[in-house]
Amino acid sequence: MSRKIILLITASVFGLIALSFIQAYLIKNTYYLRKEAFIDKANDQVTKIGSYGTPIDSIFDAISDTFIKDLDKYNVKKVSKEELLDRLRHISDSLNPRFIKEYEKEINFKEIGYNLKYHRQLKDLVILDSLRTDTIFNNNSGKALKLVGHSFDSNPELLIGNSTWETSRTFEERVQGRIQKIKYHLIFETSNYINIDDWKKIILNEMRSLLLFSFCIFIFVIALFYYSIKNLITQKKISDIKTDFINNITHELKTPLSTLSLATKILKKEDNNASVIENTINTIERQNLRLQKLIDQVLNNSLGYQDLELHKLTVKSVPLISEIVNDFKIAHEETILLDLDVSEENNTLNLDKFYITTAIVNILENAVKYGATEIKVSSFVKNNYWNLEINDNGIGISKKNQKLIFNKFFRAENKDVHNVKGLGLGLYYTHQILKAHNGSISVNSEKGKGTRFTIVLPINKL
Ligand code: ADP
């Protein structure tokens, strides 16, 4: 893969990761905003319940009236701090069942669609007078003092806000026989908590369509990215293959053309004798034939299996293969040892003899081209199909290239054999021919040891 493509993929992956992070950040923010809005809404419902003049308001009044009297006693040291808090706890506990009853009546009436529990607890209790600041209670100490509402200690609770009751109080008290005016300032701060069963689920449910939409967009972008990169790589491969093909065909055309030009120069000479002229004409004829073959190869061998016009005949397998192999043997007798094993009983095949011969000869010629000194051809029947195996001891094909050799224009880099000509069309064409016959071709090879091609064709039962 070229550097440019690798760079492009890396940049796109980083872009995609950055986008995913932004998306996740936005979703997280939306979640928090929704949570706040949800709490605000619940808060609103709860505060309205205790508004002025309602039965709940009268419960709060009852608590504060009793409490303020106890606080007066605390101020003149008639009750201790612990007793004061115990009395507050006691009055709150005794009024709490009434509070819960009234609260549930109101909340059911509102039909808010979820189970909204509420409680109020003491946060700070401070009294101030001209001499001192007395902190009677502070929830930072770790102790909680629930005033009214439900208990929901085990569930996660949400703090919806604090409310402060501040008042200045003056009362008269007989101290050592004399009436004295006692003044103090009260700060009574409470915290309001709510608890909703599955509130996270409710918020996520509200965000369902957003989450689903984001997820779909994300998948869509990933798919688009994958498809674009795949397309880019394929285009690059095709462009490389085309460049290779142009180089190969230029190389193939160069030799006959330069031979032709040389031959013309020879013929132009006036002192040529008859045998030189005849030899040169023969060369011109051969090179002309080679050029013609090359052009035919490009035109015909790049056809797909749907374009092949088959003229099928019923033929016997043994004579067919014997004829092809023997013809080939005659042409290559000096360079190749060719062994044919047709121990099968004669099978009937329905095929186009011309095309099948071309396919088999392509494989045999490749064996010679790619370094074989020995070829073994054998045929047999397996699972009602006719099999033809062509084994050679040539340079072999790497595992990676075995997957590619049937592709159009594919040529492996063969450094082990010099000056091997080809256009990368032979095996593609062979494959197309077999496909057109409802057959197949496969390869099995080990680099440096040799190659076995197996052709499979259906047997004609009639
Ligand atoms: P060409 O021979 O024109 O290159 P082919 O389509 O016939 O094209 O073959 C494709 C590639 O398969 C060849 O370039 C070669 O690398 C490899 N190949 C084919 N047959 C053999 C073989 N018998 N031994 C080793 N390599 C082979």
From TrEMBL:
<dbReference type="Pfam" id="PF00512">
    <property type="entry name" value="HisKA"/>
</dbReference>
<dbReference type="InterPro" id="IPR003594">
    <property type="entry name" value="HATPase_dom"/>
</dbReference>
<keyword id="KW-0418">Kinase</keyword>
<keyword id="KW-0808">Transferase</keyword>
<keyword id="KW-0175">Coiled coil</keyword>
<keyword id="KW-0472">Membrane</keyword>
<keyword id="KW-0597">Phosphoprotein</keyword>
<dbReference type="InterPro" id="IPR036097">
    <property type="entry name" value="HisK_dim/P_sf"/>
</dbReference>
<feature type="transmembrane region" description="Helical">
    <location>
        <begin position="210"/>
        <end position="229"/>
    </location>
</feature>
<dbReference type="InterPro" id="IPR003661">
    <property type="entry name" value="HisK_dim/P_dom"/>
</dbReference>
<keyword id="KW-1133">Transmembrane helix</keyword>
<keyword id="KW-0812">Transmembrane</keyword>
<dbReference type="GO" id="GO:0000155">
    <property type="term" value="F:phosphorelay sensor kinase activity"/>
</dbReference>
<dbReference type="InterPro" id="IPR050736">
    <property type="entry name" value="Sensor_HK_Regulatory"/>
</dbReference>
<dbReference type="InterPro" id="IPR005467">
    <property type="entry name" value="His_kinase_dom"/>
</dbReference>
<feature type="transmembrane region" description="Helical">
    <location>
        <begin position="6"/>
        <end position="27"/>
    </location>
</feature>
<dbReference type="InterPro" id="IPR036890">
    <property type="entry name" value="HATPase_C_sf"/>
</dbReference>
<dbReference type="Pfam" id="PF02518">
    <property type="entry name" value="HATPase_c"/>
</dbReference>
<protein>
    <recommendedName>
        <fullName>histidine kinase</fullName>
        <ecNumber>2.7.13.3</ecNumber>
    </recommendedName>
</protein>
<dbReference type="InterPro" id="IPR004358">
    <property type="entry name" value="Sig_transdc_His_kin-like_C"/>
</dbReference>
<feature type="domain" description="Histidine kinase">
    <location>
        <begin position="248"/>
        <end position="461"/>
    </location>
</feature>
<keyword id="KW-0902">Two-component regulatory system</keyword>
<feature type="coiled-coil region">
    <location>
        <begin position="267"/>
        <end position="301"/>
    </location>
</feature>
